[in-house]
Amino acid sequence: MTAIHTARDPRFPALGVAVDVVVFTVRDGQLEVLLTRRPDEEPFPGAWSLPGGFVRPDESADDAAARELAEKAGVEDVFLEQLYTFSAPDRDPRSRVVAVAYYALVSADKAALGARADGRTRAPQWFRVQAESEEHAQAFLPGQPPVTLAFDHDEILRTAVQRIRGKLEYVPIGFQLLPPHFTLTELQSVYEAVLGHPVDKRNFRSKIQKSGLVRESDAVKKGPHRPAKLFEFTQRTF
Amino acid sequence: MTAIHTARDPRFPALGVAVDVVVFTVRDGQLEVLLTRRPDEEPFPGAWSLPGGFVRPDESADDAAARELAEKAGVEDVFLEQLYTFSAPDRDPRSRVVAVAYYALVSADKAALGARADGRTRAPQWFRVQAESEEHAQAFLPGQPPVTLAFDHDEILRTAVQRIRGKLEYVPIGFQLLPPHFTLTELQSVYEAVLGHPVDKRNFRSKIQKSGLVRESDAVKKGPHRPAKLFEFTQRTF
DNA sequence: CCAAAAGTGTTGCAGTTACACCCATGA
DNA sequence: TCATGGGTGTAACTGCAACACTTTTGG
């Protein structure tokens, strides 16, 4: 900790730049977020926090976020977008760290592969997101009270939930949370999980079909009931 | 330049955090942006650039942006919002600098007070913004070709123009660009300048009046024609 | 034949667009 | 009286919300 107080170029005060990634998935109709456990050291020993880490000298923040996502969640080539930069001088009690926050959308099938442990942090874990109002968002495990996240990560999570809700209305990000083939009911379930409220089935289906964003495939999903047509995106990126 | 390579905490590589502020105003129906001239030293000697500077150890990026705005544009208490963080490793050829970009909206009456010079940089100057398509935005002086900005500031400017256009549609930021009392024609002119295209007078007026965001005052603006009613915002903040 | 989920249309309302003329004033 | 910008209403259209029953399958 003393090293950072050595004499240096005054334009570069002792200050770190980190990325934190809010990784979302939807599983069983529930919005979930990936959290990692902090080591048993100050600050916030053992607390849950968003996966993140310092930006390396030769990489952009975007690169760093993608790297963290690969390391902590084990996923690549997913939707990843910058959220906001958090820079309160005391947001990290040890030293000055500016956090460039990102959010990622991962389909449930990819999410299952991820969540690997490394040496310092224990295995990351998926938490459900509870966000009844616009101003609150909390992570919790079923049957347990919500957890309080380290640093300002509760605020980052809240900001991320607001962002995806707003964005879902006019950008087709819902597709990012599904495998290549999906039923319209599954797509609707994703929308409901993100928005936090039910949507009308007939209106939803007609809107989606009119949008031209999905194409009917010839496969069906079977079950102990009427089979559902499987759809696919007409374009993978937007 | 060597100082930043001294041994130090590895979590804090030699890396600076700066803020750049895209200060907009609307004057004579034209969207304008404030630019400062770089000193005659590398990199980009004498080039025009967005006002900005390094974040100090004890201030947040928000604070730094507000400070830059006060120092370079001479304005305080204006609309100022974070835009995006630019972090390509080579965006500053000298050394690693991450830029947290902001955009500000200043009314033309306040803008006239600002634009002061300091020792290193010459007096900042207002440039018009040309942005016919969504993908291009350039600064220019009347009768002159567009200027190429230093660093990645052309990209930042373009991002800022996209942002205010998108935001204007659903957030009443147009008011930030006007003095406390204004005519509906002036407000319409601000919208047209930001959006870059004309809007229908009758539809605009009925939408604004229905919104409840403005209140008719009892003053009028005179001229060599029929006097126009002056309006005021019903709320100063949103 | 029963349970479970899939699938399907219409109507009313609200918001948006397109559009042209008269009004009040100062010079 | 003329030039200048201020001010006003309506009709067609489009998108969104509300709403309930029939179909297909496996067990």
Task: Summarize the topology.
Two copies of one chain form a homodimer.
Chain A: E1 16-27, E2 30-37, E3 48-49, E4 52-54, H1 61-73, E5 79-86, E6 97-105, H2 108-113, E7 125-130, E8 138-140, H3 153-170, H4 184-195, H5 201-211, E9 214-223, E10 225-233
Parallel strand pairs in A: 1-6
Antiparallel strand pairs in A: 1-2, 1-4, 2-3, 2-7, 5-6, 7-8, 9-10
Chain A binds a DNA duplex (27 and 27 nucleotides) through residues 183-185, 200-203, 205-207, 222-229.
What does this structure look like?
The structure is a homodimer of 238-residue chains. Chain A is of the alpha+beta class and 238 residues long. The first copy, chain A, has two domains: 16-167, Nucleoside Triphosphate Pyrophosphohydrolase (Alpha-Beta Complex), CATH 3.90.79; 179-233, Arc Repressor Mutant, subunit A. In chain A, 25% of the residues lie in helices and 29% in strands. Chain A is built from five helices and ten strands; from the N terminus they run ββββαββαββαααββ. In chain A, strands 1, 2, 3, 4, 5, 6, 7 and 8 form an eight-stranded mixed beta sheet that branches. In chain A, a hairpin with a 2-residue loop joins strand 1 (16-27) and strand 2 (30-37). The radius of gyration of chain A is 20 Å and the shape is elongated. Chain A starts with 15 loop residues before the first strand and ends in a 5-residue tail after the last strand. Mean pLDDT of chain A is 91; it is low at 1-8. Chain A binds chain B through residues 1, 3-4, 6-9, 11-17, 54-62, 82, 84-85, 87-89, 95-96, 98, 100, and chain B through 1, 3-4, 6-9, 11-17, 54-62, 82, 84-85, 87-89, 95-96, 98, 100. The structure holds a DNA duplex (27 and 27 nucleotides).
